[in-house]
Amino acid sequence: MSERKIKIVNGTVITPYRMIKNGSVLITNGVITAINDADITAADAIAIDARGQYIAPGFIDIHVHGGGGHDFMDGSVAGFLKIAETHAHYGTTAMVPTTLTSDKGSLLDTLEVYEKAHRLNNVGSRFLGMHIEGPYFSLKQRGAQDARYIRDPDPAEYMEILEASSSIVRWSAAPEKAGAIQFGRVLRDRGILASVAHTDAVYDDMIEAFENGYTLATHLYSAMSGVSRRNAFRYGGAVESAFLIDEMDVEIIADGKHLPAELLKLVYKIKGPDRTALITDAMRAAAMPSGKSVLGSLHDGTEVLVEDGVAKMPDRKAFAGSVATANQLVHNMVDMADIPLIDAVRMATATPARIMGLGSQMGGIAVGKQADIVIFDKHINIHTTMVGGSVVYQREQTTWKETI
Fold it and tell me: Domains in the chain, start-ordered, CATH in brackets?
């Protein structure tokens, strides 16, 4: 069987540590096999001309609920695939589909649908496994999560869910809930990422959580306690704790709405690009027109209003979700937080890959890694998305030619 070779030429290659102007990348059978600061000589390779644009690793979204009019909780294989296809148009080459707080039956159904969709996933972003967000949350910090389903961790329930599916790679919970520390240990022992979320925890809770497996803070600042006063004494909350625990990773919704520029800058200053992952946390209305939408499943979700580039509760008193795409996250970090493009790209690629334990396989343009690559312009408009060496999206005609 002959080798399939593709080379991308005439672009600025973004590696985790430098930019290579007028660089080129060679891909052989879906894997990066060479990087150069000039054209690569490769017989029989198909050439893609980047036309002076950026050649970067594909974006990895480790927290996303939907897009293109679909939600992972809809229970539809076609919906899963449409979400993967939609976000590939905006540079996402890998994603962790995420649930919302629900009853046990809905979670089990969603996991079953995921496994069917995963086998058919060849039209867009890769699926990396499921993220269960909830239902073990603080009522006070529930945000747009449905209060009907919020409860304490129940070993009988979560063990049944864990035994039912090997596709769970991440689970978010509030560590101050009764039984949450033991839950964190169970997840850690199974190699599942435990994440702090929708929590009213104070510093002591967070330290204990970190010691027992909770190594990531889900959408930092959003639905998360800050400094509070209890019995006249002040306590550091989950936000301050995530900053103080050097080894704790954080993720942020850099949609330009959930966090203002000054908080994006603060997170970058304290945690840095190697501990901060950019996430969309996008719901079904991502890449859709403004107006009414539904957060969660169509049959049991919450009606929301999409306006001003964000989903809001109907009374407009709180956000209900993000409608961001991955390229917007990178653009906002550069434009709003004034950080270097190379760091913004790292926060959307190498860092989430490392958090999910996949850093050796993806998240960077390096020899031996999967050829998940995006080509974008100076405004982070995506022109080409490639997954495993196959083009899954092209915004406009790219110059292809057979090399001689």
Answer: 5-57+364-402 (2.30.40.10), 59-355 (3.20.20.140)
Question: Per the structure block, which two tokens stand in for 164?
Answer: 């039912």
Q: Can the peptide bond before residue 135 be classed as cis, meaning omega within 30 degrees of 0?
A: yes
Rounded Cα distance between 332 and 261, Å, is: 9
Contacts (Cβ under 8 Å, ≥6 apart) of 106:
73, 75, 99, 297, 300
Residues 6+ apart with CB under 8 A from 17: 342
User: pLDDT tens, position by position, for the chain (404 residues)?
Assistant: 568 999 999 999 999 889 999 999 999 999 999 999 999 998 899 999 999 999 999 999 999 999 999 999 999 999 999 999 999 999 999 999 999 999 999 999 999 999 999 999 988 999 999 999 999 999 999 998 999 999 999 999 999 999 999 999 999 999 999 999 999 999 999 999 999 999 999 999 999 999 999 999 999 999 999 999 988 999 999 999 999 999 999 999 999 999 999 999 999 999 999 999 999 999 999 999 999 999 999 988 999 999 999 999 999 999 999 999 999 999 999 999 999 999 999 999 999 999 999 999 999 999 999 999 999 999 999 999 999 999 999 987 544 443 32
